[in-house]
Amino acid sequence: MNEPRNPYSPPVTRVADREDVAETTDPGRFIPYGRTVSAGRGAAWIGDAWRILKAQPGMWAALLILLFVAYIVASMIPVVNLFVSLLTPFVTAAIALAADQQRRTGTFDLKVMMGGFEKQPVSLLAVGGTKLLAGVVFLVVMVIFLGSDIIAMMTGRSPPDVAAMFSMKFLLAFLVGLALTLPIGFATYLAPQLIVLHDQPAITAMKMSLAGTVRNILPGLVFGLCLMGMMIVSMIPLFLGFLITLPILVITNYTVYRDIFVEDNA
């Protein structure tokens, strides 16, 4: 016969300790070629980036400092410094991977710095090569309109000619170069995020980025105006505001992509 159980005694059943599992959120629905968002979202992209930054300020400071140091080192290496722009998509990919990991888990690992080299590095190099080509096209246009002296001015080998920079010829050259290279800028702006977060090949990612940015010109203008205002305000207290503004600007590479290409499930 079983002895009566004391109702005030602690439980005797073994209960497994709860493992600390990182919380995850719904990845949302991927929208190829993006969607059109309201103009007000241009300001919201900055607000979203600020919330990401303030949730893990120390981690973001460490990541951005490491990326900056890596960029400086690469810029000091002969020959390599000529192709630093090829590495820009890898930096954008690292930012996107860090922000996405934080969205899913609440934090991120600094090893995301190498995420671009581990996930489709050839596609990221293709995007970097396209950005480099855009720079070459812009320079060629400036040389055609202004002659070879502009190269010396742009490389710092000769002092800038203020009168020439405000001439109609310079303005025309700049506008023509901008018209030729702006589509490439649109195509490469969100391509690294689509490559590392959605495994898109380089050409497809750039087509999607171009379509997504063109569909959102209006919120993009609002976004640009808000950034200009932030930059001006950041200059007032001895430029100290840039300690906040620059990280926010970097993280918006993720928030813009996320808003245009991913629809969160209700």
Distance between the termini: 56 Å
- The strand order across the widest sheet is 1-2
Number of strands: 2
Enumerate how many helices there are, as a single number. 12
Helix content: 55-70%
In one word, what is the shape?
Answer: globular
Round the Cα radius of gyration to an integer and report it.
24 Å
Low-confidence stretches: 12-24
Strand percent estimate: under 5%
Derived structural class: mainly alpha
Mean pLDDT: 84
Q: Profile the largest sheet.
A: 2 strands, antiparallel
SSE order in H/E notation? EHHHHHHHHHHHHE
Task: Report on the architecture of this protein.
There is one protein chain. The chain has 266 residues and is an all-alpha fold. The protein has 12 helices and 2 strands. The chain has a two-stranded antiparallel ribbon. Helix 3 crosses helix 12. The longest helix has 26 residues. The radius of gyration is 24 Å and the shape is globular. The relative contact order is 0.17.
What can be said about this structure in brief?
Helix content is 66%, strand content 2%. With 266 residues, it is mainly alpha-helical.
What structural keywords apply?
266 residues; two-stranded antiparallel ribbon; mainly alpha; 2% strand
Provide the fold topology.
Layout: E1 29-30, H1 41-55, H2 57-76, H3 88-105, H4 115-118, H5 121-146, H6 149-155, H7 162-165, H8 168-189, H9 191-198, H10 202-214, H11 217-235, H12 242-261, E2 262-263
Antiparallel strand pairs: 1-2
Helix pairs in contact: 1-11, 1-12, 3-5, 3-9, 3-12, 5-8, 8-10, 9-10, 11-12
